[in-house]
């Protein structure tokens, strides 16, 4: 069973940066697509970014395009989310989720499409 653990969250001022990590254990990550999604209190869950298992496909929600970058290092069983130019509206719990699909270039942005999920890491942006 794939187990995912997120880290790297914290409190930053607007305009600051954070890098989140999603580390897998139990199975190797190289056949799994990964999505980062977030949920803020009183708001619906929303997909932030996803990356296919081979790393060739990356997708971003419109509200993070140009600010966030997803990447993966399969040798380290880790997927990263580099977040720059953070805004107060980015405040949320960030989770990663993983699953395997028919194509190694496919990743859906909907968190409900993924079987395995981590516990999340909190990101707070305030000044």
How would you portray this structure in words?
It is a single chain. The chain is mainly β and 127 residues long. It is 0% helix and 46% strand. It contains no helices and eleven strands. The strands form two sheets. Strands 2, 4, 5, 6, 9, 10 and 11 form a seven-stranded mixed sheet that branches. Strands 1-3-8-7 form a four-stranded antiparallel sheet, with no helix packed on it. It is globular and about 40 Å long. The N and C termini lie far apart (40 Å). The model has no long low-confidence stretch (mean pLDDT 95).
What are the main properties of this structure?
127 residues; mainly beta; 4-stranded antiparallel sheet; globular
Q: Give the overall form.
A: globular
What characterizes the major β-sheet?
Answer: 7 strands, mixed
Q: Into which percent range does the helicity of residues fall?
A: under 10%
Provide the low-confidence segments as ranges.
Answer: none
Helix and strand arrangement:
Elements: E1 3-7, E2 10-12, E3 18-25, E4 33-39, E5 46-51, E6 58-60, E7 68-73, E8 78-83, E9 92-99, E10 116-117, E11 121-125
Outline of the structure:
Helix content is 0%, strand content 46%. The chain has strands at 3-7, 10-12, 18-25, 33-39, 46-51, 58-60, 68-73, 78-83, 92-99, 116-117, 121-125.
